[in-house]
Amino acid sequence: MEKEEYYLVKKEILLQLISDSLALTCLDADGVDNWSWYMTSRDEMIADYLEKPVKEIRGNDYTFMDVAKEQLKYYRKA
Question: CB neighbours of 16 closer than 8 A, spacing ≥ 6?
């Protein structure tokens, strides 16, 4: 069994990686050629992660970066 490796990254880089990963997951799930559903899917995904109603997400400027910031609590600080 290989020893697990850990790397320290800057907070800004980690936030961007999480945010980009969420956006790509959303695009992959709906197909990148299906743009009409992207915003609907995006809003639903953000609502699920932030545990907020979709209606609230649509009425505000929530982004995947907001989700990334919320997910930081699952990462240990160095």
Answer: 68
Query: Does the pTM of the predicted model rise above 0.85?
Result: no
Mean pLDDT over 6-24 rounds to 90
- Three-state secondary structure along the chain? CCCCCCCCCCHHHHHHHHHHHHHHHHHHHHCCCCHHHHHHHHHHHHHHHHCCCHHHHHCCCCCHHHHHHHHHHHCCCC
Q: Is 18 exposed, middle or buried (0-12, 13-18, 19+ CB in 10 A)?
A: buried
Contact (CB, 8 A) for 51 and 42: no
Spatial neighbors of 46 by CB under 8 A, at least 6 apart, are 52, 57, 62, 63, 64, 66, 67
